[in-house]
């Protein structure tokens, strides 16, 4: 395929297009689109036209495109708005492309609702994970437009929001927008069966509190042991040392209650957070704390970190080691296999008189043996607790 025209369309069964688009259709010989698009435009295609269904895997679709110099492609709404035109640009480098857009579904839904949408934050959940929606909810975005799919449905979205306490939004669902017989716009109803395709708009009704520094007493603790949590002031200093505003992926090794992971998730919603812990009982604790404080999206891994397969995880550029069981050097060596070139590792060393292993000494030895550069440390004494040194190193 050397050139293509991509025509955006709604779910209207009338199959009406402006004259300039009809001219493109009339001159076309090879057409492509989804089955739903074919049903709508079939009667408009020239006699003898060839049609290529867009189905997964897309690689096979684009292989079939290679046999033709020019293809007319039908797509939903605005093809450059999370649409098929972006896929064409990615998979067909150098193709000459023209786009004829229609209003996208979220525009249409905002029009039906008669709400201004110039400040709407758009999230696509179509074949994607929850990260961008979680980020918007944690950040308290005023209006969120969501593109759905058959898995991340209005019901699944509502369930996730309720689970993590984001009940401060009103959801409006638009179904089959543009379809003369099936279009429906309504407030979310837990009992409803929603037609596909659909989309939704979330409007914030009130502000959910997001503290800067969660009080230690608010966390569910491991065996009610107050010493098994990174204290709030130390926690915030640790996040500062990790330089998280500029990072993308954060690993928390030895999370215990999950306080550091949760604080990082709330203060820096753009982060992908992966939390590791060897004790199985800590899984329920971190999940309960995450629900309690509204921190969805923490990727939890239970088991010995040194035995954990990390190959499918995003590479971290910030790592906190909250527990090492005396195997600090081995843990740091494994981290270095995945740490990005600009990444850093941070650990808090507690100087406790009854503790046999000097974690600061282990840190120094590991940094020397692994050729890591130490950043000047920060020492702090909090109330009547033992002195703590916040340690940091880079490659």
Textual characterization of the structure:
The protein is an alpha/beta fold and 395 residues long. The chain has three domains: 3-102, 3-Layer(aba) Sandwich (Cobalt-precorrin-4 Transmethylase, domain 1); 106-204, Tetrapyrrole methylase, C-terminal domain (Methyltransferase, Cobalt-precorrin-4 Transmethylase, Domain 2); 216-394, Vaccinia Virus protein VP39 (Rossmann fold, 3-Layer(aba) Sandwich), CATH 3.40.50.150. The protein has helices spanning 19-27, 35-41, 58-65, 84-91, 105-113, 131-138, 154-163, 232-242, 259-267, 281-293, 328-336, 359-369; strands at 3-9, 30-33, 50-53, 70-76, 96-100, 121-124, 143-147, 169-175, 184-187, 198-204, 249-253, 272-277, 299-302, 318-321, 344-350, 373-380, 388-394. Helix 10 (281-293) links the parallel strand 12 (272-277) and strand 13 (299-302). Helix 8 packs across helix 9 and helix 11 packs parallel to helix 12. The longest helix is centred in the last third of the chain and has 13 residues, at 281-293. It is elongated and about 85 Å long. The relative contact order is 0.09.
